[in-house]
Amino acid sequence: MPHLLRTLKAAGDQTRLRILSLLGSEPLSVGEILDVLGMGQSRVSRHLKILSDAGILENRRAGNRVYYALDEQARRTPLLSELLRELAELPVSGNGSAAVARNDRARLAEVLDLRKKVSVDHFQKFGKDHDERQKSYVDSDYYRKEVLAGLSKSPGRVLDLGCGTGELSALIGRSAEVIGVDQSARVLDAARAACPGAEFRLGEIEHLPLGNQEVATVVASMVLHHLPEPMQGLREANRVLAQNGTLVVVDLKEHDEEAMQRDFADFWRGFSPRRLEQMIEDAGFEIVEKKSGRGAGKLTCLIYRAKKVKPQEV
Known about the structure:
Elements: H1 2-11, H2 14-23, E1 28-29, H3 30-37, H4 41-53, E2 57-62, E3 65-70, H5 72-75, H6 78-88, H7 97-126, H8 130-133, H9 140-150, E4 158-161, H10 167-172, E5 178-182, H11 185-194, E6 199-202, E7 215-221, H12 230-240, E8 241-252, H13 258-263, H14 273-282, E9 285-293, E10 301-308
Parallel strand pairs: 4-5, 4-7, 5-6, 7-8
Antiparallel strand pairs: 1-3, 2-3, 8-10, 9-10
Helix pairs in contact: 3-7
């Protein structure tokens, strides 16, 4: 009961409801929240603290930026999940609160479009040279070998998330049917040339252009740290993966290399093993193998093989 009362009290304010509505989609930095709400930092920071103290929000540091997101456990409570549903379905026609909601959604769309443009522009420009430019930090040959080692002898149809210019897809395609997904049309043209036997689809990892249970294996190789909300990417992987299908995740262990975030469109500076494992499990997977290593690179890679044991609600 005390926790319920804290939640009700924390959410019982129009500004805090606006913040919850914004964060219902994905994490936002303080600056982005300020841009949408059009308020001063001290006022917004006070509301963020109230929501955080109530256990509704969590904050994560990504370099010099702090991002706020809905706490995953709080999100699953009946009270907050119903509140978020009501906020998402709030009509935007009319005046008063409807006008506020309409303006918030329009401004949020602008903020997210700008954020996406930065990422797309980077991979459009440096897609083919991405590995070469960051080879002193990350050994791509090493982690791709680990991805291949994590596949079963009969992996079925394999989905390569954020396939880029198709180097990994081509390796997988030697022994399996491959679908690659990326958000850059230009990059996908290069992927089709590198792996003509694969199928490539334009789309976002958070909203995959695949049907439910369409593939038997999903590979998320060095993509989650590019996503503002990696949990949403894992949930989508669960949705398109057949029951008992295999998920292979390779990503960076948390690090302090500012250049990775500045120069390579990285959203997060890697993940702690505990956080990445928790996200994988919360998305409906059971981890069956885990390891780490860096090969010839400077940064450590976290490597997981997991099995889908619980479908996501769709």
